[in-house]
Specification:
2 copies of one chain form a homodimer.
Chain A (H helix, E strand, L loop, with lengths): L1 E5 L4 H10 L5 E6 L6 H8 L4 E5 L16 E4 L6 H6 L1 H21 L4 E7 L10 E2 L11 H20 L2 E7 L1 E3 L7 H11 L3 E4 L6 E2 L1 E3 H14 L4 E6 L5 E2 H11 L6 E4 L14 E2 L2 H5 L8 H13 L5
Parallel strand pairs in A: 1-2, 1-4, 2-3, 4-5, 5-7, 6-15, 7-12, 8-11, 9-14
Antiparallel strand pairs in A: 10-13
Amino acid sequence: MRILITGGLGFIGSYFAEKLSNSAEQIIILDNKTGFSLSGEDILLTKPNIKIHNVDIVSSDIDEYFMNIDIVYHFAANSKISEGVNNPNIDFDITVRGTQKVLNAMKKASVNQIVFSSGSGVYGDQKETILSEDFGPLLPVSYYGASKLAAEAMISSFCGMSGFKAFIFRFANVVGMRQTHGVAYDFVNKLKIQPKTLEVLGNGMQSKSYIDVEDIFNGIELAIKKQVTNIDVYNISTQDYIDVRYIAKEVIKEMNLSDVKINYGEDSFGWVGDVPIVRFSSDKIRKMGWSNKYSSQEAIQRAIKFILSDDNS
Amino acid sequence: MRILITGGLGFIGSYFAEKLSNSAEQIIILDNKTGFSLSGEDILLTKPNIKIHNVDIVSSDIDEYFMNIDIVYHFAANSKISEGVNNPNIDFDITVRGTQKVLNAMKKASVNQIVFSSGSGVYGDQKETILSEDFGPLLPVSYYGASKLAAEAMISSFCGMSGFKAFIFRFANVVGMRQTHGVAYDFVNKLKIQPKTLEVLGNGMQSKSYIDVEDIFNGIELAIKKQVTNIDVYNISTQDYIDVRYIAKEVIKEMNLSDVKINYGEDSFGWVGDVPIVRFSSDKIRKMGWSNKYSSQEAIQRAIKFILSDDNS
């Protein structure tokens, strides 16, 4: 199996590259090295069957890398989350135009299988509604969510028009080894600089599922094996939820800090476009035989330990 | 009211421009004059409160036209349907990048209301399933449908992030005065050249709702008046369906032709990406008080008469 991974040096991409390199004949990574994992790159550089190209999929000619590839894991996305909040074009350009570039390159090279990392953002702000994959209408409230939905749509049309097979995954908040962003990551870095005060974006009541990258890896590999239709969409999440206040306390505990004053904001959301309450149904992938190994609590605890370890850079 | 209409010289756009000019203070039309209506332009040129700019929204700087606009009717779309079938980038570039340009221009000029013409293509190929607005997952099978869904998503995110109000309409097949493309239009033009034979794309059993442009105008204006949420999506369709064989026979009858040999294709679809059976629920807009004036049969009969009249150019 010859695999191409866009964003293959990022948090999720580098995890997949490392795991898949155990069995794949060859792994080609395209990554523009923004928001990437240094420690992940170090490990991947030791693998003889992994070739890393420092390439920006939006601005570069990428066609050549898709020759003789069997399947594409398309993980490249905007890693400048805070900038994307104020500028729609960052997400639109990277995710929408990037996906268009990848699909065209696949078609030219007759590569017809694609794994895509979508997310809960496609559903918009649906409060306590349990969101299954057939929920509609999809009205994303963030540029990030809109870009993911646009990319899903474009991928779907290549299944209809060009015989592609697509595996689309809407993840809960993915955490774990080598994560390069996210709420726990931000808390750790804030507290390293200022160990007596923690400023939290929003009132801390934002409540979501957190899923370990190992669990999403297992879900994706299972769906690839079992899916019979030419396209399908899967939520991947735990069945429990934790709030930001819990994460703040876990980070403080794990860092052995005391007397930290936590300053919560007034808004229910962390930033404009943040969806404070997300309730996922992951029944569909569970019916295929998947289950999460780690709960949200366990996943975030593991993630905090990874973030604090020397290896997480 | 100052209104900007993208694609305002096209079939749907020119109808709206003419009707809205009766009450609007000013109408600004942006149109690149591909697949536009000559007779529509002639009429609109006589209206003192309509200003037409021959501008391509994708390649040109369009920001200046959005100053002091109250609402945008975003109708610009790929009119080269047959070319779009083979090249994903035509629809992606015009609809996706065009919508991105329009949204950015609106934001810069503090215009925050948008009407968008989406279509049944967002639903994908769902056979006999009755499609209401909350159907999911949305897996479009054509580049056209994918682009419309991507545009819906992008518009939705501007509602969440920038306080826009959006009115999204998923139309059945729109027909009527000054239509510049479509199955009846194609049949008339084929029979003008070759009156003894009619080549039909597909087996003629494709069965869909056809709705008069007058009916969609009334539906849109009603929704704009009544919608209280910052974004909503409405199907607009008749409650009956006709197939392509019926349309072929009506065209032949209206043209007073006889002994026409109709050659049907073997496929159930007219072209790759065509969805042969579309079943729409329009209950949502009906509950707001809308109903169609013309059935599918009546709408297509009127359309054929318009196409055959001297005014339809």
